[in-house]
Specification:
250 residues; alpha/beta; 9 helices; 10 strands
Length: 250
């Protein structure tokens, strides 16, 4: 029986006077792939960053597995719980954020060795397995400057997986790539989905969403407007705002 691995309740986020997230509630089950989509500025990336507390929410509840955090004045006192949530959530950004002075292998093992205190030999063995998984084992000794954008993003995926997360969060992982490189990154993400990884993906790649997502969620002006399986959302959206957006991107 599937269990909820992420529960978000009445989440709000303000940047000064700007109300970016407005009472957002969302549940994601173990092994589910959820695609968030919507116009730029609708709050998609902010929602992802609030899940692992890269952004501090203004109010609401975030629960990842058995770790529940109620946002409020005492949030800073929950630093240990927040640290554990971050370890459970791997994140891949629009930009690759690789360390240019480290090789591909060194980029992948940096966090396990530094954050978790893993022995370099153990971390390196697992890193090579992950690089093989994303098709880049032969690039282990290369530096990021010698990689294409698609290769860099696949290294970023391997780096996130090296922390053995329960959930993967993808923030428009193909938006910085040339069109001919997008396919290789999406292929790596499809493999993760087939392996049962729980994923929340911010993307406008509707073909990927149609093929891989269990559920699509349309966001507009900081609110979740409509959600459902891809066949329903893409084929016959119920909300006029969803329909207009899809007409523009498809």
């Amino acid at each position: 029986m599937a269990t909820d691995v992420i529960t978000i309740q009445q989440l709000d986020k303000h940047f000064g006077d700007l109300h970016v997230l407005k009472e957002v509630s969302l549940m994601v089950q173990s092994g589910e792939v959820v695609v968030l989509f919507g116009r730029s500025g609708s709050g998609k990336s902010t929602l992802l960053r609030c899940i692992n507390f890269l952004e501090e929410p203004s109010s609401g509840v975030i629960q990842v597995g058995d770790l529940r955090v109620e946002v409020g004045p005492a949030l800073r006192a929950r630093r240990e719980k927040i640290r554990q949530i971050r370890e459970r959530c791997g994140m891949v950004f629009q930009e690759f954020n690789l360390f240019p002075h480290l090789t591909v292998l060194e980029n992948v093992i940096e966090a396990p060795c530094t954050v978790k205190g893993e022995a370099r030999e153990k971390a390196s063995k697992r890193a090579m397995v992950l690089l093989e998984r994303v098709g880049l084992a032969e690039k282990a000794k290369e530096y990021p400057i010698r990689l294409s954008g698609g290769q860099k993003q696949r290294v970023a995926i391997a780096r996130a997986l090296a922390m053995e997360p329960d959930i993967m969060l993808f923030d428009e992982p193909t938006s910085a790539l040339d069109p001919e490189l997008i396919g290789e990154v999406l292929a790596a993400m499809r493999d993760l989905a087939r392996d049962g990884m729980t994923m929340i993906v911010v993307t406008h790649e509707m073909g990927f969403a149609r093929e891989v997502a269990n559920r699509m969620v349309f966001m507009h002006e900081g609110q979740l407007v409509e959600e459902g399986p891809p066949s329903q959302i893409i084929g016959s959206p119920a909300d006029e705002r969803t329909r207009r957006f899809l007409e523009a991107v498809l």
